[in-house]
Amino acid sequence: MQIKDKRALVTGAASGLGLTICRELLRNGAAIIAMIDIQESSGKEAMEALNAEFGKQRAVFFQCDVANNSEFDDTFKKVITMLGGLEILVNNASVIDEGNFAKVIDVNVTAVIRGTLLGIQQMQKDSGGKGGVIVNISSVAGLHFLSQLPVYSASKHAVVSFSRSFAQPYHYQRTGVRIIVMCPDLSQPLNAENLSSTLPQDEIIQRYYRRVDSIAHGLIYVIRCAQNGSVWISEDGKPVYEIQLPDSLPQKPDDPLLKTDENEIKIK
Prior knowledge:
There is one protein chain. By secondary structure, this protein is of the alpha/beta class. The protein has helices at 16-27, 40-54, 69-83, 101-123, 150-166, 169-175, 192-195, 201-225; strands at 7-11, 32-37, 59-63, 88-91, 132-137, 177-184, 231-234, 241-243. Helix 1 crosses helix 8, helix 3 (69-83) packs parallel to helix 4 (101-123) and helix 4 (101-123) packs parallel to helix 5 (150-166).
């Protein structure tokens, strides 16, 4: 998909990675970006900065708690009304809070599922839409096991599994909406504690911008070129790369479900 003249929505867009993604989309020709974030003051400042850089009304901000289902639904409707449609959706909002597992699930899992379903409703070809692309931001924590962050890791595994399931031909052939997963090595706004407490502040800032810039650049490539259902990793400020995940567990030779007779359907 070409990004030029497309309408996009990014959640968690007020700062950090979300804001950098918005900037890269506009830099690559997106017609307008809808920015959703719970932080109202920083969201409005980010919107004003983007409009000063790219032109008036290229970015619009909507204050919203994506963990509040009714609020997210209402805000999504407002976005569609203002944009007049949607071709690109980036579900980026995310939190790390091992002490509040309900919040982590609400933001990292439920809101991603809800956003994906709302996006598909607007884009799907079998309901008059033009198709589109949804990028769900997971994390390398969604591909490995983290003993220090078990709830966060579980939430990011859920994003990978949900996205790949909804990208199956059963859905894609009807909707024409590609669903892709991005797994950055750092999936939330960075700070000194995230990187290193021993580095000079200038180097910390430089590392921060190199990482989020690299992730955002990778996302542009993914939107343009990635196949439906693919999973991509961005790490160490290097170009993104695709990984292959198994589609199923190995079948057991003695599994009774594999035994057939003339009256049974063989499971392949």
